[in-house]
Amino acid sequence: MVRQRVWEKVETRARFHTIKEGTKTVEAMGTNAERACLGLDVLKDTITATHLGPGGKTLRTWTVPTTRRSVLALAKGAAPAAPIVLEASTAGKAVAFVLKEAGRELHMAAPNKVALIAKAPVKTDERDSAALAHLYQAGFLPECYVPTPEIDRLRTLVRARADLGFKMTRIKNQCHALVTRNLLDEEMAGVSDWFGVGGIRKLVALPLPEEEKGHLALYLQQPTILADQEETLHAELARAAEERAEVRLLMTIPGVDYYSALATRPSRSWRRSGTFVASRRRPNSARWPVWSQGRTTVGRR
Prior knowledge:
- It contains 10 helices and 9 strands.
- The protein has helices at 68-77, 90-101, 111-117, 125-138, 149-181, 197-204, 210-242, 245-250, 258-264, 270-273; strands at 2-12, 15-26, 37-42, 46-52, 58-65, 84-87, 106-109, 290-292, 295-297.
- A hairpin with a 5-residue loop joins β4 and β5 (58-65).
- The protein is elongated and about 75 Å long.
């Protein structure tokens, strides 16, 4: 292992600007160059694989469908000691989980940093898979954190819960826009909460054209659906929280419920990687109101 000075640059209007400079520990040059490896360009429907031998010589390039059976066959058919390199994506993460189950050595690249290092004028699946393998052999692969299936499941739950708030905000904005385009804002003057019991009664009583009344009725039906989804998600989040001691510990802090605790729970490798279950920053639950019982509430138990 050696200490190597590195620079991170971005390209803006055909000029490169240094945005970060520092040092990092990298393997000595030549260590990976003598290792055969497999680069994968994972898409929704297909996986393009490139097998590089020692010294960067392309031995084989082939394409398989993106299915569990094909991924397991690829893991079994590749050289046992050859590491597998792929880029982070929705499909890439799913393939990575299957490869880990098969016991393969895995290296996942950060897409934004790969684009800066291996920018090519012509992009094909074969070129992309080969570029990932070459970056690994050269010791310049910008790797990213690969979550465990458990952490990925928790992230999915937290994102789904947050998405309910975004949907509710969109519905409210559509209702406000409907009233404004019919020049009826004066009719709603003095109503602090348009979506409380009194506000909804006033919305329904507005002198709207029949077509707009139909639109408003559709908008006001959606919060009920969101409330049912919220109840289901909250039950799943509560079960996940009760199963984890670190989440229960966070919930002892006043004002922190199971949703906030799960969203901010650090992974076991947090001290090394700085990664969290949902994000690197604690979400502001006030931005994610959820419709419940005819009023807007913020995640409280």
